[in-house]
Write a structure and sequence with these properties.
The protein is mostly helical and 84 residues long. It has one domain. Helices cover 76% and strands 0% of the residues. Helix 1 crosses helix 2, helix 2 packs across helix 3 and helix 3 crosses helix 4. It starts with a helix and ends with a helix.
Amino acid sequence: MDYLQIFQLAIKYGPAIKGLIDTATSNLDLVEKIRASTAPLAAVLEDLGTQFFPKAAPAIRIAAAAMASFDPNVTAWVQKALNQ
C-alpha cells in the first residue's frame, strides 16, 4: 500500500478511530472494535504497531499504533509502557 492510500485511510477513519479509543474498555476491546469497524486501516495499524512497538504483545499492537497515531495525549505513555 502506498503512502497516498494510507493517508486517505487515515483521513477517512481517523475520527472513528479516535471515538473508538475514547469508548474502548481495554486494549483488546479497542483492537476488536478497530477490526470490526475500520478493517481497511487495521492492517496498516498492525504494521505500524509492529515497527514502532516491537516488544509489545502482537495482540495489542493495533491498539498501540492507533493510540500513538490518533490520540496524542497518550503517545509518550504508550511508548514508555510498551517498550520497557
